[in-house]
Amino acid sequence: MREKTLSLRETLALHREQPLCSSCHNRMDPLGLALENFNAMGMWRDQERGQAIDATGKLLSGESFTNVKELKKILASNHATEFYHTITEKLLTYAFGRGLEYYDVATVDAIVERLVKSNGRPSELITGIIESAPFQKTRVESTAAKVSVVSHER
Hints:
- The protein is mainly α.
- It has 2 domains: 70 residues, no CATH class; 71 residues, no CATH class.
- The protein has 7 helices and 6 strands, in the order ααββββαααααββ.
- A two-stranded antiparallel ribbon has the order 1-2.
- Helix 1 packs antiparallel against helix 2 and helix 5 packs antiparallel against helix 6.
- It starts with 7 loop residues before the first helix and ends in a 5-residue tail after the last strand.
């Protein structure tokens, strides 16, 4: 008897049955599965291993979608500010070369406010980061293990 190869959706459903795994996977799996029509190279596909791809999902908020376009609409319409917070935090971490601290909250909030006012213009995100005091006064360890202040001003 030949065993059926499980789809990614079925494999993840089994994984979510593990109590330690379910809290993260319940949040992330719907997002990832919505993107399953894209292969590793970003090319569109309708099947994987001879099985049709099921890109449907339901967010923790209860909002359901049938494909990535519907997910995008939900996220853009109902969760834009959350997205702005997340992308701001991630890019600040990269720009600062360190994790964010409690004292960075005001910087994040100011940049998110700029994004909300500009309807999410990427230039406002980049400008907000560049103009922020923490970015302007980034600390970098030198090769001699000294800490020096690097100014990004010209």
